[in-house]
Design brief:
Elements: H1 3-15, H2 56-62, H3 68-81, H4 86-94, H5 98-106, H6 116-130, H7 134-153, H8 193-205, H9 211-221, H10 225-253, H11 279-285, H12 296-304, H13 308-317, H14 340-347, H15 371-377, H16 384-390, H17 415-419, H18 424-428, H19 443-464
Helix pairs in contact: 2-6, 3-6, 4-5, 8-14, 9-10, 12-13, 13-16
The structure holds a DNA duplex.
Length: 473
Amino acid sequence: MSSSESVKSLTELVQQPCPPIETSKDGKPPEPSDPPASDSQPATPLPLSGHSALSIQELVAMSPELDTYGITKRVKEVLTDNNLGQRLFGETILGLTQGSVSDLLARPKPWHKLSLKGREPFVRMQLWLNDPNNVEKLMDMKRMEKKAYMKRRHSSVSDSQPCEPPSVGIDYSQGASPQPQHQLKKPRVVLAPEEKEALKRAYQQKPYPSPKTIEELATQLNLKTSTVINWFHNYRSRIRRELFIEEIQAGSQGQAGASDSPSARSGRAAPSSEGDSCDGVEAAEGPGAADAEESGGPAAAAKSQGGPAEAAAATATEEREEAPRPAEKAEPPPSGTPVPDAAAAADEGRPRAPPPPPEGPADGPGPVPNPAAAAAAAPAAGEDAATSAALPGEGPCRARDGADRSSALPSTSAPAAARRPSSLQSLFGLPEAAGARDSRDNPLRKKKAANLNSIIHRLEKAASREEPIEWEF
DNA sequence: TTTCAGTCAATAAT
DNA sequence: ATTATTGACTGAAA
């Protein structure tokens, strides 16, 4: 009823898309950039009649299901087509840092898997895409930034550094005093490849290690406990995310598919490790073979090596995987040597039986797909207990999908918007209608085509008009 | 408590 | 100079 009214105003609001400044009460100063920006952009054409500052949070709340994948795809296109960077876009439009933007654009999570907060950036992106002047505005920002930079850089003549005086606290210790405050910066831990390997192996055996296990791992690898904990948290979510994108891609090519069969995933799935590690998780997807893996299995076997049953029991009861190994790493230098035996130590878990882990400390870049071997090898006896325990809740990809989604039954992306009665549609609906949305039919092909097109498009653009963009100094 | 979702921010890679 | 990766931190949910 009245909702349409407000919606209408919203529509206009869209015209004024970039409110980087959240306004709010949130506790985080949005962007530390330049509060005192004397921008030219009025930034408030807002012809609206007062009230209704409608935070995007509200927009998010009533937003229909958005196609996150499609949105990011288009945003990427627009940005690259116009030579706009993620940093600028992120800070200006989304209020996020470059790294976050990169991540978001590269691996968008499906709408229904996002929390309210997580949807926000996507709504902003959609809003931005709908804004006819989006590019122009961003370009302006870019120009201004550059100008400011230049100014500051060789502030040679005249002006007496406008924003220079650090005034408070911020001491400019340029070149002198290498004793800046107790080195308050933490060095940022970087895990060595061997350490990551070891952690991944541990993950495969037990994605949710007990505190005790974590402690042991930390000790063996010579890492802080918190680092190990963080690593597991991060790794879990990363894996999960990986699954999401596979889900999306697979889904889009879905049934009608027909062409191909290849193991859809795999494409570039595992980022850091060529495929190895994830098998546990990915395997989950596979029908039969999947369960092999045994996590507890090998480990347990290693130690007790007696009856499988017992091993399983042990695992179930408590975990006590790790090995008794005499490791005694005799106090290695805290920092210097990354512990060659760290790998060995962790490795310990599943060493013997199955295929020899072909990787040594210096395993070549060889893309050798050995992962399968491990999985395959598994006898798959009966350690379900262990397995089940090991696998995270949801596990297989199927099963979900029909679940959430507050509004109706829109099976997948597109339709929802279409059947929306309210005029919200105008807000989120694509202006260009370049056929982006009604994919449903043969999305996969379309996606690929789109990619090619974008590439071609970009090339053409580059060829024809080479960077007319500001070169003004 | 613990896990998860989102991010930040340093730093690797391009 | 950008973009990608990733350990750590924050806040919310269970």
